[in-house]
Amino acid sequence: MKKMLFASLLLALVATKADSGFAADPVEAGLQSCGSCHGVGAPPHDPTIPIIDGQQVGYLQKQLQEFRSGERESQVMSSMAESIRSSDLARAAALIASRPWPKRANGAAASEPDAIAACRSCHGVDLGGGQSPEGVAPRLAGQSPEYLADQMGAFARGERGNGQTMMSIMQSLDAEERARLATYMGGLSN
Questions:
Q1: Is residue 10 part of a domain?
Q2: Dihedral angle computed from the Cα positions of residues 50, 59, 26 and 8, in that order, rounded to the nearest 10 degrees
Q3: Are 119 and 166 spatial neighbours (Cβ–Cβ below 8 Å)?
Q4: What is the secondary structure of 88-148 as a DSSP string?
Q5: Which of 39, 73, 104, 139 is deepest in the core (most CB within 10 A)?
Q6: How far apart are the first and last CA of the chain?
Q7: 54 SS3 class
Q8: Is 36 contained in some domain?
Q9: Rounded mean pLDDT of the chain?
Q10: Can you list the residues of the chain whose pLDDT is less than 70?
Q11: Cα(70)–Cα(35) distance, rounded to whole angstroms?
Q12: Are residues 87 and 148 in the same domain?
């Protein structure tokens, strides 16, 4: 009876640790806090926060490095990126990228805006991201329209300067065109 009780308690403890996201790998364990804002297996609750699970690994690594260096500004993200050892940044980005892109409820299909061709030249025909003339472009298809609009606006206003081509393209578009792009890309099947 005591053996059975002990085995049951041990099993419950293991199950609790597994359910709580316990990870033996210190890099993976350190990434557990990312989910509180960016979502775990689901989109973020706040649509102005990007989906990062399943994003391009090279893009994730670049953003983490830029948050660490201050090239990209965010008090929260800079602190989070600084908490990851420099030697673990590539592995952290790879772990996040290896997770499946979460499904999000897409809005009604929007008509394709004329300016989408400029986006596809770097972000790919399907807007899934990948190698581009300036490095690795992020996936845009299925990303939150609110986040996309916010970031396009930041590039247009010069508030986000970690992509000269993005700044030039976004500055050439008016707010209405950027909103149409965000709605279209966010509504693509993810």
A1: no
A2: 50
A3: no
A4: GHHHHHHHHHHSPPPP----SPPPPPTTHHHHHHHH-TTS--EEETTEEEPP-TTS-HHHH
A5: 139
A6: 51
A7: coil
A8: no
A9: 86
A10: 1-23, 106-109, 190
A11: 22
A12: no
Summarised one tens digit per residue, pLDDT across range 155-170 is 999 999 888 999 999 9
| Count of domains for the chain | 2
The encoded tokens of residue 38 equal 């960016």
Distance CA 112, CA 116 (A): 7
CATH number at residue 152: 1.10.760.10
Whether the Cβ atoms of residue 77 and residue 26 lie closer than 8 Å to each other: no
Please say whether the beta carbons of 162 and 73 come within 8 A: no
**What pLDDT, on the 0 to 100 scale, is given for residue 30?**
85
Range of the domain at 98: 50-102
pLDDT at 190: 61
For residues 59 and 143, the answer to whether their CB atoms sit within 8 Å is no
State how far the Cα of 179 lies from the Cα of 39, in Å rounded to an integer: 24
Q: Which residues pair with 136 in a beta bridge?
A: 131
Q: Which residue has the tokens 């581009």?
A: 132
* DSSP structure string for 1-49: -HHHHHHHHHHHHHHHHHHTT--SSHHHHHGGGGHHHH-SSS--SSTTS
Q: What is the pLDDT of residue 1?
A: 41
